[in-house]
């Protein structure tokens, strides 16, 4: 009986601690490096617009500043546009809601040089193909370039771009490129994540529950959480009354000698005890 009450308590704590609001920060153009003077747009792709997502960043000069109110960017809802990005804008960017949760973090590098490496700004999935582009600010982007990983030369490409096919965790690292006569790009870290594994059949449009949709998913989940939270209180009350009744009787030893074959009879006796307590109080 005590184990059952503890189990319900653990379930209740898990439900109360869950977070339903999530967001993902995206960058356009999709790159982790930019030339000084470029236009950059950041956006919070959100599951719940009522959470009030805003763009924040940490740089070498400022910590946890907000787009549109702390001297950088122009905020528009859950988006932020930087019309002319400076080298001092290099730093870590993320989305943050009024309720506290934050999104993924993105590291942007702004250079005053003449060469950048365009690489994925978000983590890449294991098994996908990834293309790296070495480009200059004033000349065409198809110049021959050398690509490096963790300081070691990978290969030289005559067209200025390199594709890594079927990336794996071993491809994770710090990448940069070099164009002869123009210079070297800053370094950017490429993260590789594993593909999620499932043991059940994939969900298709034919068996997808019709109630799960982006506009109403968060509201529905909150309603379910409230219903499940209320139900354990009712069950816990019945269990505690029954536990108290058995304790008052001195823990009848016949309870411990009972086998699983008469489990149903004991359950009925528990409810009879609850009824007796209720009758005694009424009298």
TrEMBL record:
Residues 101-193 form the Ig-like domain. One of its GO terms (molecular function) is transmembrane signaling receptor activity. GO terms for cellular component: external side of plasma membrane. Residues 1-23 form the signal peptide. GO terms for biological process: cell surface receptor signaling pathway; immune response. Keywords: Disulfide bond, Signal. This is Ig-like domain-containing protein. It comes from Oreochromis aureus.
């Amino acid at each position: 009986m005590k184990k059952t009450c503890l189990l319900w308590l653990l379930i209740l704590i898990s439900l109360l601690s869950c977070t339903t609001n999530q967001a993902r920060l995206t960058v356009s153009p999709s790159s982790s490096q930019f030339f000084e003077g470029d236009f950059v747009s950041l956006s919070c792709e959100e599951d719940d617009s009522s959470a009030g997502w805003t763009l924040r960043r940490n740089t070498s000069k400022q910590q946890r500043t907000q787009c549109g109110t702390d001297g950088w960017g122009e905020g528009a809802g859950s988006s932020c546009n930087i019309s002319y990005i400076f080298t001092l804008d290099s730093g870590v960017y993320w989305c943050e809601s009024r309720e506290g949760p934050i999104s993924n973090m993105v590291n942007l590098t702004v250079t005053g040089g003449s060469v950048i490496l365009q690489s994925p700004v978000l983590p890449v999935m294991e098994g996908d193909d990834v293309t790296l582009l070495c480009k200059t600010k004033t000349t065409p982007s198809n110049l021959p370039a050398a690509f490096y990983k963790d300081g070691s030369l990978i290969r030289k490409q005559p067209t200025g771009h390199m594709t890594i096919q079927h990336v794996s965790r071993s491809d994770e690292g710090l990448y940069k490129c070099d164009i002869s006569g123009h210079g070297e790009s800053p370094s950017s870290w490429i993260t590789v994540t594993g593909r999620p594994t499932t043991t059940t059949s994939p969900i298709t449009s034919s068996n997808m529950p019709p109630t799960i949709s982006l506009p109403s998913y968060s509201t529905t989940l909150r309603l379910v959480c409230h219903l499940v939270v209320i139900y354990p209180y009712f069950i816990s009350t019945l269990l505690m009354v029954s536990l108290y009744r058995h304790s008052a009787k001195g823990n009848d030893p016949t309870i411990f000698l009972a086998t699983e074959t008469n489990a149903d009879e004991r359950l009925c006796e528990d409810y009879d005890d609850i009824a007796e307590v209720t009758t005694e109080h009424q009298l």
